[in-house]
Design a protein that fits this description.
Low-confidence stretches: 1-7
CATH architecture: 3-Layer(aba) Sandwich
Structural class: alpha/beta
Number of strands: 7
Distance between the termini: 27 Å
Order of helices and strands: HHEHEHHEHEHEHHEHHHE
CATH superfamily: Vaccinia Virus protein VP39
Mean pLDDT: 94
Strand order of the largest sheet: 3-2-1-4-5-7-6
Number of helices: 12
Radius of gyration: 18 Å
Shape: globular
CATH class: Alpha Beta
Helix content: 40-55%
């Protein structure tokens, strides 16, 4: 997803296979966008393009800029959206959200809206992130997003700690209160921010292990020798109380205020 360093690439094919929870959440977030059908919208952290595909369908006269920092994620998205790309309805941008600017978007800026799902928690400087997002939006432009929030995947973190280690990686699970303050400070108004629990349930230990290895433990496993990675994910899964992950989703709906600051 966007916001990750190039050395921490995702396995796009595996993510596409296991990301049913993220697709379900993304559809709910997409419904919050107010669209006429001719807007230019940035999908900030498009992943493998499953939600992007549905966003494109809502913009028959518009355009989607699908951005991600992961080459393998973008490759999956480009394969999925080849026809839309050929029709000029979607373009792809290999870029990091930590360096987003109007110049990076070229003549697509300023945007009418930014959509993002399951991405912002991978970026640790939310003050800069929100300021950069404001800089690419027209006055009144929409920001509709969801990411991991305070308390996210507590059972996974507890299971890792029960093995005597801390989960390696970089993330920020922010609170709604802190996020609302940051959004207003970055130049957004009409801000609504809230969090809610979401449980991702899996058919059994094998599915849970694959999901953990692809998503929740991806960065941690990258610090281990290859032969230790799956055994570690299996130990974490065995230490969890059930074949489920207790997600907390942080939601935000905001409008860009006046001129960019």
């Amino acid at each position: 997803m966007a916001g990750q360093p190039p050395s921490a690439d995702w396995d796009g094919a595996s993510y596409d296979r296991v990301s049913a929870p993220q697709l379900r959440w993304g559809r709910n977030v997409l419904e919050r966008l107010e669209l006429s059908g001719d807007e230019v919208v940035l999908d900030a952290g498009c992943g493998t393009g499953r939600v992007t595909e549905e966003l494109v369908a809502r913009l028959p006269q518009g355009h989607v800029v699908a951005l991600d920092a992961s080459p393998s994620m973008l490759a999956q998205a480009q394969a999925r959206l080849g026809a839309a790309r050929a029709a000029g309805r979607v373009s792809f941008l290999h870029a990091d959200l930590r360096s987003l600017s109007p110049a990076a978007l070229g003549d697509r800026a300023p945007l009418d809206a930014v959509l993002s799902t399951a991405t912002f928690h991978w970026v640790t400087d939310h003050d800069k992130l929100f300021a950069d997002l404001r800089s690419v939006l027209r006055p009144g432009g929409q920001l509709v997003a969801q990411c991991g929030g305070e308390g996210n995947i507590a059972s996974v973190i507890a299971a890792v700690r029960s093995l005597g280690v801390e989960r390696a990686g970089t993330w920020l699970y922010a609170s709604p209160e802190d996020t609302a303050v940051r959004l207003r400070r970055a130049g957004f108004e009409m801000t609504e921010v809230w969090s809610h629990p979401e449980v991702a349930t899996f058919d059994g230990p094998a599915d849970l292990v694959e999901f953990l290895g692809t998503v929740c433990l991806r960065e941690h496993l990258g610090t281990l020798p290859e032969e230790q990675r799956r055994p570690f994910a299996e130990k974490v899964a065995a230490a969890m109380p059930a074949a489920e992950v207790d997600y907390v989703r942080l939601n935000m709906v905001a409008r860009a205020r006046g001129a960019a600051i």
